Amino acid sequence: MDLKIWIEKLITEKPHLKEVLSLYDKVAGFNKECEKILKTENPSESLGKLLEIFGKTFEVPYEFISFLKEGLEGKEEEIFFYPKKLWEIAFPEEEVAEEEITRMLFLLSMPLFRKLALEVRKGKLNSEDQKICLVCGKFFSLSVIDENNKRYFLCPVCGYKEEGPRIGCSYCGHTNCEKIDLLVDEDEIRVELCKDCKSYVKSFKETMSLYLKYPDPYLIDLISLPLDVVAQERGFVRRSPNVLGIREIK
């Protein structure tokens, strides 16, 4: 069963999440289509096609695409190999809202970071800092516990996966369970709230029934958005966005 079918089933089960799930379907489709294009190793040509697909997939206004093309001009090779530079493109403040710009650049950068993550898995990069993704530098806000009780932190931007401490805060680094409070929903997805730095991380087991039914960690993250709402209402902060580029639930 593929992602599109899972999403269709979930929309039937959870109609209040229709907009969020439909957007994830677009995000997944965008990344899959771009994966083929990015194998060409031609920065200028690849980024041009990415922008074309990006605009069509997310129905992005022509003005925004024009701004992007201007911002990318002459920087294609640099951004192709260092996607974080894409987040630094400046836009006229009066033209596009800052929040919208941040989300759009986040989504556009995803296929580039996922390509870079393949190099990491081949052993070409390494890092000693387990708080952040070594590919894109984002903090980890989602983790999964496998059948061997090992915990892996997942990056929403590039899909990079890294083993970390079974208990503790991925942001400030402590492993003291007494400093962690828990929120747990009916699907056994939990939020670990750090009393020290006021950060939180979502966590779930691969053996839980919902994941066995829909084995996509980023989909599970979206299904459990109500947990984000509760955690944030209590004053805790998600240090990195979900796969849709959303960090704060308003």
Please outline what is shown here:
With 250 residues, the chain is an alpha+beta fold. It has 9 helices and 6 strands; from the N terminus they run ααααααββββββααα.
Task: Describe the strand arrangement of the main beta sheet, using strand numbers.
Answer: 3-2-1-6-5-4
Arithmetic mean pLDDT: 88
User: Using DSSP, what is the number of strands?
Assistant: 6
Helix and strand composition category: alpha+beta
Description of the structure:
The structure is a single chain. The chain is of the alpha+beta class. The chain folds into 2 domains: 15-121; 142-233, no CATH class. It contains 9 helices and 6 strands; from the N terminus they run ααααααββββββααα. The chain has helices at 3-13, 18-37, 43-58, 62-72, 76-81, 98-121, 209-213, 217-223, 225-233; strands at 142-145, 151-154, 161-164, 180-184, 190-194, 200-205. A 6-stranded mixed sheet has the order 3-2-1-6-5-4, covered by helices on one side. The two termini are 33 Å apart. The mean pLDDT is 88.
Task: Record keyword descriptors for this entry.
globular; 250 residues; 11% strand; alpha+beta; 9 helices; six-stranded mixed sheet; 2 domains
Write the layout of secondary structure elements.
Layout: H1 3-13, H2 18-37, H3 43-58, H4 62-72, H5 76-81, H6 98-121, E1 142-145, E2 151-154, E3 161-164, E4 180-184, E5 190-194, E6 200-205, H7 209-213, H8 217-223, H9 225-233
Parallel strand pairs: 1-6
Antiparallel strand pairs: 1-2, 2-3, 4-5, 5-6
Helix pairs in contact: 1-2, 2-3, 2-6, 3-4
